[in-house]
Design a protein that fits this description.
By secondary structure, the protein is an alpha+beta fold. 47% of the residues lie in helices and 21% in strands. Helix 1 packs antiparallel against helix 2, helix 3 runs antiparallel to helix 7 and helix 7 runs parallel beside helix 13. The protein starts with a helix and ends with a strand.
């Protein structure tokens, strides 16, 4: 509508000028006629005067008609000019009024969209777009409406639109009557796809430099805009540039404040990541800190797994993401590309740049803009932090990008340390379960008989040393006891001790006599030991079914301690197992009182120092005195702990050897 009005204005001006020329000609003819009449009167020719009068009258009438007609045409042309001028002013006023809406928008991203939307509304075009001028290319920033084939990564060479380079340099609009015929390359191909007609590109100066370009596209081919229209377009572009410059200044100020907050929050990040914690706890801390540091709406930690990424943690929780949710690379290859590149990537608008991701996840989780931070470990990125904002935000500045990279590095180290600690705990727990599995399960179903045990390895890294013990109830009601000590420490000693204990149990349950047990253990020891110099001390005992006596054999092992009765004959001993081939071990029998506690122990209990500053050994006497303070038949685990604590305190620090204790409490009836 506006171009046709401009053309009508030019036609009206030409018509008015022609009418003025015709009036001037008529006035000249009238003046000539008056001169002839005057001459006729002077010669007094009446007939001539009469003829001339008639002729003058006719000419005057004709002249009046011409003047009236031409006057009407001039008036009409003048009114048309005034109407068109009024319409141009109103159009310019509408344009300026529309630009006031720019002040209502704070975000630069939203402002760019608002500029395109208002331009489309004011200039009645089918589409409006905003482009960034970058050297010899223009990059698409915004388009209304947005749809295929346009994405956030669209770039076009300036040379594909002849005359655009000169127009941008001169800061003047470029009109292309038919884009499908006046463009080249990808620009022309895109015009064919979208069915473009006429195009007007208007440069936008920001800070006095042409940095942007507003593109107005119409579906139909239109005449070139006139001067009044060009003024409106340029004024709109000027106001848009001013609004964008103000938004940029506000953004810069906000970025400075945000950068200060980010740096302050970042300083507090190191202690948090260095703190001990499980992988889940560290992942939670990383995501929560990321939200705080970068003022994001959410943060999610993903790890690579089975040709995709699996969610580890998200803060805050989003209902769309279930526990251990997986996103396949085949469906969203951009995540694989981010991990492989190892570089941070910012997505200004997920809805535009990745519509599939937007519809499936991002819309529900409120992830409009994203910053993806790969976490590299050992030179390879296997995890990804995705920061998200529920509204479009500007790309991070160089300073913020540097802080984000530092944050990602710290997060990667913290998570790797958490994984290492978790692996160590898992190995430790597995080892402990294995070691505990090597200890016997003692279950006596005999009235008046109870067993208490205590074990402390000399190597604090292990739960089981080379000492071993066991207790079995025999089919006839008797009770078999075992305590032993493998020379040496560590895993090999623990394994041999566990093997000997298992062999002893098999021999006892197999019906071997007490006299034969140590010969059987020596055969196992010689076969299983890793060093021919390894030997074992051991003591095997059997309490009679009537509990009135106990028989035992000792292979170089300390004798039992008796609470409630005498220990006569307990010093009888044989050689350690694995030292003398075909050795024999004498059997000793002692009487037992009705109520008694029998304590079997390894030499780790009595071989420590009597005091930290003396070379003297603790010996049996202090342990026996402490034991005598306990009522017979009542030696439990707490009492065994006190005995070990006494030996430890006397030694001045941890005991130098493994300690194994087994107490059998017998009460009459």
């Amino acid at each position: 509508m506006a171009p046709r009005a401009d053309s009508q204005q030019r036609d009206s001006v030409a018509s008015a000028r022609q009418a003025l020329r015709e009036v001037n000609v008529a006035l000249g003819a009238s003046a000539a006629l008056v001169a002839i009449m005057v001459a006729a009167v002077l010669v007094a020719d009446r007939e001539a005067v009469a003829a001339i009068g008639a002729l003058g009258l006719a000419a005057s009438l004709a002249l009046g008609a011409v003047v009236a007609r031409r006057t009407r045409r001039i008036s009409l042309a003048r009114n048309t000019m005034l109407a068109e001028e009024r319409e141009s002013r109103e159009r310019l006023d509408r344009t300026l009024a529309a630009t006031r809406r720019f002040l209502e928008t704070e975000s630069p991203v939203d402002l760019r969209r608002q500029i395109c939307a208002i331009a489309r509304e004011v200039f009645d075009c089918s589409a409006a777009s905003l482009w960034s001028v970058e050297g010899e290319e223009v990059a698409l920033l915004e388009r209304v409406p947005w749809g295929p084939p346009y994405t956030a990564s669209v770039r076009r060479p300036i040379r594909e639109l002849p005359g655009l380079r000169d127009a941008l340099d001169a800061g003047r609009p470029l009109f292309v009557a038919d884009l499908r015929e006046g463009a080249l390359g990808a620009t022309q191909a895109t015009a064919e796809v979208v069915g473009g007609g006429s195009l007007l590109d208007v440069p936008i100066a920001v800070g006095g430099v042409t940095r942007l370009m507003l593109g107005l596209l119409w579906d139909e081919v239109r005449p070139e805009p006139g001067g009044a229209q060009r003024v409106a377009y340029q004024r709109y572009a000027d106001q848009a540039g001013l609004a964008l410059e103000q938004a940029r200044n506000r953004t810069a100020q906000a970025e400075i404040a945000s950068l200060n907050r980010t740096l302050s929050a970042m300083v507090q990040t190191d202690p948090l990541f260095r703190a001990d914690g499980t992988e889940a706890e560290v992942a939670e801390a990383v995501c929560a800190k990321a939200v705080e540091v970068f003022e994001a709406s959410g943060a999610a930690l993903w790890t690579e797994h089975d040709d995709g990424i699996v969610l580890v943690r998200r803060v805050p929780h989003a209902a769309i993401f279930g526990r251990r949710m997986r996103i396949a690379f085949a469906e969203h290859p951009s995540f694989r590309a981010d991990l492989e590149s190892g570089q941070a990537r910012f997505i200004a608008d997920v809805e535009h740049d990745d519509p599939v991701l937007w519809e499936r996840f991002a819309r529900s989780s409120g992830s409009r803009s994203q910053l993806r931070l790969p976490l590299a470990s050992a030179g390879e990125a296997r995890a990804l932090i995705v920061l998200s904002w529920d509204h479009p935000v500007e790309p991070p500045s160089r300073e913020v990008s540097a802080i984000a990279s530092r944050f990602a590095d710290q997060a990667a180290v913290a998570l790797a340390e958490a994984a290492r600690r978790s692996a160590q705990r898992e190995v430790g727990e597995l080892h402990a379960r294995f070691e505990r599995g090597l200890l016997p399960t003692i279950a006596l179903d005999a009235p008046g008989a109870e067993v208490a045990t205590f074990y402390r390895p000399g190597d604090e890294r292990l739960s089981l040393g080379g000492d071993f013990y066991d207790c079995l109830q025999l089919p006839d009601g008797g009770i078999a006891l075992l305590v032993g000590d493998v020379a040496g420490h560590g895993v090999a000693a623990a394994a041999l001790g566990a093997g000997l204990r298992s062999a002893w149990r098999a021999l006892v349950l197999g019906g071997w006599e007490l006299e034969q047990l140590h010969a059987g253990l020596q055969a196992v020891c010689v076969r299983e030991r890793h060093d021919p110099h390894i030997f074992v001390t051991a003591l095997s005992a059997v309490v009679a079914a009537d509990r009135t006596s106990m028989r035992h054999v000792s292979a170089g092992h300390p004798p039992p301690m008796i609470l409630g009765g005498a220990a006569a004959g307990f010093d009888t001993n044989g050689p350690p197992i694995g030292v003398v081939a075909h050795a024999e071990w004498p059997v000793v029998e002692v009487a037992l009182p009705p109520v008694v506690s029998i304590l079997l122990h390894t030499d780790g209990l009595v071989e420590g120092r009597a005091a930290p500053d003396t070379p003297d050994r603790l010996g049996v006497a202090p342990i026996q005195r402490e034991l005598d303070r306990i009522a017979p038949g009542a030696v439990g685990e707490d009492e065994l702990r006190r005995l070990v604590a006494l030996a430890t305190a006397a030694n001045g620090r941890g005991l130098p050897d493994d300690v194994a204790l087994l107490a059998l409490n017998l009460r009459a009836g």
